[in-house]
Amino acid sequence: MPYRTLPVLAALVFSTAGAAPVFDNPLVTQRADPHVTLQADGYYYLTATAPEYDRIEVRRARDLNGIGKGESKVVWRKHASGEMAASIWAPEMHRIDGKWYIYFTAGRSDAPMDIRLYVLENDAANPLEGTWRERGQLKTGWEMFALDATTFALDGRRYLLWTQRPPKSDKHMTAVYIAEMDTPLSIKGPATLLTTPEHPWEKVKFDVNEAPAVLVKNGRVFVTYSASATDANYALGMVTADARANLLDAKSWTKSPKPVFASSKATGQYGPGHNSFTTTPDGKTDILVYHARGYEHIPGDSLHDPNRHTRAQAIAWRADGTPDFGEPVADKKAPAVARQ
């Protein structure tokens, strides 16, 4: 395999910067795959998957707890037919070189699940204004089922991470890849495989590694990913590399043998996953943003159940410099279940 196994982690050490923030979860009901970014203008911006799988909306608020009631605008809708006409999933909005980019997943009207990566671009300072232009498909090097793109920059280099079915794969499994970007719309060089489903907890109902998210801290690059079916079995795994290492070398990465965040009967939260990372405004506390459901059993296909809600909680840090996500916290309020 292209990674080594991560050793058992050390005991918890909590931040001395003050009490960790407590969030009024769920922050937004019926919004899955949440991506939150705190920008220099003082706003938190949220993009997420709507349960109808038909549009992309952007929300913003100065307080993360208020993101559900903040400004909101639908900035793009699916096409009536052809490409980008179905399965509008997992939008992520990033500010790169003075422009906004939304990376998202979409299928065709004649093949809703034959999905690929696409990009929107906006020159406006405020992404709720201006024009979002379609910049086409983000090519990964081979044409096969692809989703869940994210991007980050480190030491002057920008990287794309995404999920894709491996070339010439003889089974319906997904893996996580990384490549360097030469523009916000393209990658250069071959993709590097970071992780494939290996452990039993990554293969429940479906062999899935998907939805990478990046946290750079304590001299390391932590990449979380989601595994298994999108029901109560959904859970976060993690691969780690030294920030000074060659991130395009698969041998630079280690993989945790167990999930780092999973369902909790004690708190009544099930299927936590497809996360992103942000911080408090002062930058002193790291925050895990994710979706989960408030019940375990789902009749039928879990992708047709709309009640994956956006949640957040503070991250603790161990003595060895690795994150401890704990367990998904209980709701502060009863979530609504009506479609929005």
TrEMBL record:
GO terms for biological process: carbohydrate metabolic process. Residues 321-340 are annotated as: Disordered. The record marks D148 as: Important for catalytic activity, responsible for pKa modulation of the active site Glu and correct orientation of both the proton donor and substrate. GO terms for molecular function: hydrolase activity, hydrolyzing O-glycosyl compounds. Gene3D superfamilies: Glycosyl hydrolase domain, family 43. Keywords: Glycosidase, Hydrolase, Signal. Belongs to the glycosyl hydrolase 43 family. This is Alpha-N-arabinofuranosidase. It comes from Pseudoduganella lutea.
